[in-house]
Known about the structure:
Structural class: alpha+beta
Shape: elongated
Mean pLDDT: 76
Helix content: 40-55%
Strand order of the largest sheet: 6-8-9-11-10
Order of helices and strands: HHEEEEHHHHEHEEHEEHEE
Number of domains: 3
Number of strands: 11
Oligomer: single chain
Amino acid sequence: xxxEYIIGSDVKLKDVLREADAMQLLQNAAKAGxxxxxxxxxxxxxxxxxxPSPDGHVFNIKKPFYLEGEIAGYVVIKGDGANGPxxxxxxxxxxxxLNIVLKSNHRSLLATxxxxxxxxxxYEELLQTCNMLKESEIKYRDLAENLExxxxxxxxxLKQAHAKLLHxxxxxxxxxxAAGIAHEINNPLGYILSNINTLKQYSAKMKEMLAFFRDxxxxxxxxxxxxxxxxxxxxxxxxxxxxxxxxDLIRESIGGAERVKKIVSDLRGFSHIxxxxxxxxxxxxxxxxxxxxxxxxxxxxxxxxxxxxxLPPFTCDPAGICQAFFNIILNSLQxxxxxxxxxxxxxxxxxxxxxxxxxxxxxxxxxxxxxxFDPFFTTKEVGKGTGMGLNVTHEIVTSYxxxxxxxxxxxxxxxFIITLPVNTxxxxxxxxxx
Length: 434
């Protein structure tokens, strides 16, 4: 499912849905009781599957995916016909989760194509401006005043185009976040749904057992045969296991719900959706929020070290400052370094907040280190980097009168240093670093 997809061509399921995402959700269906699961495209080609297709009394669910109003494919879940209700719920959950991932990936591709379109248009505008300036030079003596007006107008157009590009970079970041958050939420929701369905079965068994006890005990005398029948039914329903498993199911479901709540809370805090103007931000807290929403990007063998010192409040647009941190941290996490270590330090020195992001990644070659903050410059493969992330960070930091620099050598990691001036009138007394 890794074929290149071009917006505007016919939408194929394998172009939008990654095999890794689909297989993880199908494997969760297997854990919940399905013996066979698959994702098929609109022509019936199996894109990924698990388990053999069962014979005999089989329960089968097949639901279609839609993209741009057309059927793009199907999710198929099969299993023992005796477990029909459970398999139906498993199939619905797998379909809903895959549908969310499918739509998120599709929106991300659309956002990327939109960004590329804006870049191409801006390049054409620059060429047009260059040609007009050449013509104006020839007629300079007669058209001096007209030339000045044209230059002023073109500069304003370039500023607007640059602002649009910065906005598109934010859209791409949001698309990446949406896909990662959807993946993070799917896991706890999967076992919450599975636990609830299991509790439903347990409840039915216990109700029937209690009804049996009520009918039996309503007799004037309880015979040995009734006691034996009660014991057989207790063993038949495996109520010893049911009663011991109920607490774990409830605990896991509550834990999963709390995890979903935290993910949503972190994302809301990162976006500062409720704040529409500048506010006093806690830089340490904003860095933690950014790390939380990037949790899905942190490799399993990576380590993040937080070395924070007390900082004064910093008046800013919190969503913007989080975006600046987001771009630097994401760059470090995507270096591909095994055993990656990211150290984040904060200090307040001489009325300035200093933030250091240091990693042990592959570093930056000396010949390109002076270009990394330039618009459109990227060392990533085509389609994997827009070249605007660090430029956005530079624009945000410098807009507050701050600076952002990098120190690195190839093969020895990199350190990004952000310096932000503190408003001394509002700054509380904080002991300076020795």
